Amino acid sequence: MQKNYYQPAAETMQVDDIKKLQEEKLIKQVKYVYDNVKYYRDLMDEKGVKPEDIQCLADISKLPFLTKDDLREAYPYGMLATDLKNCVRIQSTSGTTGKRVVAFYTQNDIDMWEECCARAIVAAGGSNEDVVQVCYGYGLFTGGPGLNGGSHKVGSLTLPMSSGNTNRQIQFMMDLNATILCCTPSYAAYIGESLKEQGYKPEDNKLKAGIFGAEPWTEEMRRDIEKSLGIKAYDIYGLTETSGPGVSFECEEQTGMHINEDHFYAEIIDPETGEVLPEGSKGELVFTSLDKEAFPLLRYRTRDITILTREKCSCGRTFIKMKKPMGRSDDMMIIRGVNVFPSQIEAVLLNKGYAPNYQILVDRVNNTDTFEILVEMLPEDFSDTPKVITKKEKQLQAAMKEMLGINPTIRLVAPKSIARSEGKAVRVIDNRKKIGINV
Ligand code: ADP
Ligand code: ZN
User: Fold this and answer.
1) In terms of residue numbers, what domain contains 407?
2) Model pLDDT for residues 50-97, shown as the tens digit of each residue
């Protein structure tokens, strides 16, 4: 099969050459940041490290970390490394875990970001013959603008739909023969559900691929979406702090996302100690941007938990791969002393034939954690006979206990009773946070 890359010279570079390129860029970037970002210079001075101390990639461990709290403290201009007159754009995080962070871009930064998204589109089989329907939100959120820009670079016909108005999404998808769909996985699942409700079969649409990201999703969810839309579903990862989507993207192997290593240096650290872990270990992902001009972050702690591996990939790309993030370290709930990730719950539900429509409710009553999962029944399985419902709830509870090690209360609810998401889905309502319990 003919292999397609958007920038083959970069994407298939020899590993030694990637490392050499990263080293050269890192040394330059550290000096640039030290000279231009007072906030980071102060952190380096505090640690007693100077730009001259960074002579090779391994020296990166001498540098201080940055966290979202630093960015909030430095808001809005504290991390800016160039004059505002050189900047052409501001984007902002979704604010999933608190106050939003703003990021700045020069035109070169935008070009680099859009090229990364273009690599993702081409890896998903996109070309100038495709119609790319972008239903990530447009505006401050990076999803829409990133994929929109990438699609332009590839030369695809771009449908800048933004999120929401699902009937219109479906009408345009059908009338204009969209071939590639870009949105959050939870919205893709909703579009699939809506198509079915409107009487369409998966083969009725012209879609061949989807590029889904911005939130954690499981392999089970991937299979569910692939079936309901009749496509191949590819993962894409990114965060506003490093530019936006496209920091890493999946190829046809669908076994993890290649990190665009010519622009980003990735590390895995132990989230407790900050120690750098060897390749193959599970830990917190840390990114250093290697050539950004306006908002260059060094050793930014993403809080996303994943694994890096540099195995030979059949697609011919040489960039290191990251596994699907399990979620952020702060998505992890500690319930009755046990660590629980929403993605584990999603995997059980989809394996048991339920749709990905669920909500996790956690609270503390009389000093004990309560843990309840609301799950929608499928329309075809819907029953209002208490006996039938109780039996199904018990079965699901047993499967959850096996996966999680603790027993949630399962409440099966009527189809369509849990709100659908057009952007990032809200899966967890943890009331313990409201009452100030540190979880
Ligand atoms: P916020 O941090 O406010 O949600 P962003 O909109 O920039 O701001 O989202 C970036 C975050 O979204 C990442 O740090 C990660 O937690 C999550 N994310 C993005 N893409 C993926 C993906 N493919 N899989 C899992 N999580 C993802
Ligand atoms: Zn690959």
Assistant:
1) 333-435
2) 999 999 999 999 999 999 999 999 999 999 999 999 999 999 987 777
Q: Using the 3D structure, point to which of 281, 300, 329 is the last residue of a domain.
A: 329
Q: Which of 277, 310, 329 is the last residue of a domain?
A: 329
- CA–centroid distance, 328 to ligand 1, in Å, is 8
Domain check: are 278 and 378 in the same one?
no
Cis preceding linkage at 76, omega within 30: yes
28 and 46 belong to one structural domain: yes
Q: What is the pLDDT of residues 209-247, one digit of tens each?
A: 999 999 999 999 999 999 999 999 999 999 999 999 999
**Nearest partner of 248 among 332, 177, 308, judged by Cα:** 308
pTM equals 0.93
Point out the ligand nearest to the CA of residue 312.
2
Q: What is the CA radius of gyration of the chain?
A: 22
- Mean local confidence (pLDDT), 285-302: 98
Residue in 92, 215, 321, 424 to alter for ligand 1 test, most ligand atoms within 8 A of Cβ: 215
pLDDT value of position 253: 97
pLDDT at 119: 98
Q: How confident is the model at residue 2 (pLDDT cuts 50, 70, 90)?
A: low
Q: Both 299 and 342 in a single domain?
A: no
Q: How far is the CA of 181 from the centre of ligand 2 (A)?
A: 20
User: Which domain CATH number covers 398?
Assistant: 3.30.300.30
Q: Is 132 in the same domain as 91?
A: yes
Q: Tell me the ligand closest to 248's alpha carbon.
A: 1
Let me know whether 278 and 423 are in one domain. no
User: Are 40 and 167 in the same domain?
Assistant: yes
| pLDDT at 100 (0 to 100) | 81
- Tally the domains of the chain: 2
Kindly state if the Cβ of 41 falls inside 6 Å of ligand 1. no
